Amino acid sequence: MSFKLLVSAVIAVVVGYYWLNYVKRGPIYESDKKLNGRTVLITGGNSGIGKATAMDLAKRGARVVIASRNLKKSNKVKDEIIKESGNHEVRAMQVDLEDFDSVRKFAKEFDESEKHLDYLVNNAGVLLRGMAQNGLNRIFVTNYFGRFLLTNLLLGKMKKQSAERPVRIINLTSDLYKYVEVKESDMTRDAEGYFDSCFMFGQSDLANIQFIHNLSRKLKDYDVTVYIFNPGFVYTEGYDDNHDLQELIFDAPMFLFGQDVYYGYQPLLKLVLDDSVVKHNGGLFTGFRHDELLPHATNESSWEPLMRKSLEVTGLSSP
């Protein structure tokens, strides 16, 4: 073997080792905590981080409710979780966050049929182009307004329960919030391609962050804590059904540098299981790390008009 070939082989091994262990993999959260008697609701729990979290928490004895648009797929995942975990306390329910009637129906059924709600994980999100039936951008409606409505409809149950047992609400987000501001004018138009969809995705993330940050103050008299979780760059099932050139260009680095789902959901376990996170109520976690929110995400003056718009769009009378 020539010297150049040997050097190339060594470099390839080193790069491969680094890629596998520091890019595709990550830290693992270790805890033997059980969740018997606790109920977890995970939106988008039939794929990606949501599915991995549902599986893990079911193995810990939790009652897990998977909520998604595709009930057939959710039932298949439910059966898979029951088989692997041995826990039969797994339920699949249908909810379409883009359809507020569906959200209201789901919330009513959940409230009436489930005794407790200990953990609400707002995980479902889309990167779909197009407009919802109410004339607003689908990304805004599903990723923010749907979550806002669902959380508020279940808030009474969680507040009442918190007198006897604590509750946690976790909203997933991304780094895209850092580069945008929420604009009402963008809510009423379709995205002009993949990158513009990402821009709107970032706005929906920022709206969620502002909502959760302010919700923590609203709930200060209750044993209900709220968190914002950014899993980082995780390679999971695609959000976008519009496979244009821009998306294909993005998919390559996503595959190369996106963390595997198994490692991507590990920090979410900490937010569910670890009592040390309570001191960061209303805060942002990027992976395992607690991060300070950027000033524009905690600006009260920008939240007020967004709150009014949220109440108007969802038909709620109060936040």
UniProtKB/TrEMBL annotation:
<dbReference type="InterPro" id="IPR002347">
    <property type="entry name" value="SDR_fam"/>
</dbReference>
<protein>
    <submittedName>
        <fullName>Uncharacterized protein</fullName>
    </submittedName>
</protein>
<dbReference type="InterPro" id="IPR036291">
    <property type="entry name" value="NAD(P)-bd_dom_sf"/>
</dbReference>
<keyword id="KW-0472">Membrane</keyword>
<keyword id="KW-0812">Transmembrane</keyword>
<dbReference type="Pfam" id="PF00106">
    <property type="entry name" value="adh_short"/>
</dbReference>
<feature type="transmembrane region" description="Helical">
    <location>
        <begin position="6"/>
        <end position="23"/>
    </location>
</feature>
<keyword id="KW-0560">Oxidoreductase</keyword>
<keyword id="KW-1133">Transmembrane helix</keyword>
